[in-house]
Amino acid sequence: MPPATLPSLYYTVFALFFSASVLILLKKRFIARIAMSAGTLAAGIVVMLLVITEHRLPLYGAFESAVYILFVVSMLDILSARSSDTAHCRDRISLFTCIIILIVLIMEINKPRQFNQDFFMYGNVWVNCFFNLRLTAAAFFIHASVLLNTAAWERPDKISKNRSTACDSITADEKYRRYRQKKVLYRARSFLLTGIVIYLASEWSGSIWCLNWLGDSWRWSKGFFKAAVIFLLVMTSVHLPP
């Protein structure tokens, strides 16, 4: 693979999602959607290059992990854009998604844009499931947070001047707004629950890996333990009322 390929794709993804965010603010919805789709495609090309050249899924390392998570997040945004539950706030969802993607890409700007070197355990199916499912779960958690913030920042609709300002009309508008907000919140919780299931599947895979390697399922390193605590803290939000 040419050395300039990955940096070029990195800047392409950055430029496309930055353009999409600007276009959303300018209310150019159709062109913004094209830019986001192109950015998703560029991130997918990075993932595909990894699979072709390294013969494995994205597992570890800052660059490949970040691009894979952003690819899944952008794919989830495309799915949300097709849902009737989020029809009234698609622009905000896409804008928040672009902002998060840009923040992650900026955090990676001074880091080497290369795939992680192969580790002797990368050929183990349980190792692949453990690392890759963790990244996938993180993407689902990010998308759930995007939906949650979208619903939280929703403002009451302005009542048309032609409509009656009677108390019952205002109440009906408020009830409808809350109904739409709850639909987005329930969708966010669904993605959070899905992310939890994926994360637990990764932990189960990791326990089998540890069992086959060291003879029991509990010999985790300090780094794995810290990551597990972070995921568990994220999971607590599922017990909070919407």
Structure overview:
- With 242 residues, the protein is mostly helical.
- The protein has 7 helices and no strands.
- It has helices at 5-25, 29-54, 62-81, 90-107, 125-152, 167-214, 222-235.
- Helix 1 runs antiparallel to helix 4 (90-107) and helix 3 (62-81) packs antiparallel against helix 4.
Tags for this model:
mainly alpha; single chain
**Shape type:** flat
Unreliable stretches covering 5 or more consecutive residues: 157-166
The helix fraction, in percent, is over 70%
Name the structural class.
mainly alpha
Q: What is the element string, with H for helices and E for strands?
A: HHHHHHH
Question: What characterizes the major β-sheet?
Answer: none
Q: Total helix count?
A: 7
Number of domains: 1
Head-to-tail CA distance between termini: 48 Å
Gyration radius over CA: 21 Å
Question: Beta-sheet strand percentage?
Answer: under 5%
**Strand count:** 0
Q: Quick check: average pLDDT?
A: 81
Short description, anyone?
By secondary structure, the protein is mostly helical.
Write the layout of secondary structure elements.
Blueprint: H1 5-25, H2 29-54, H3 62-81, H4 90-107, H5 125-152, H6 167-214, H7 222-235
Helix pairs in contact: 1-2, 1-4, 2-3, 3-4, 3-5, 4-5, 5-6
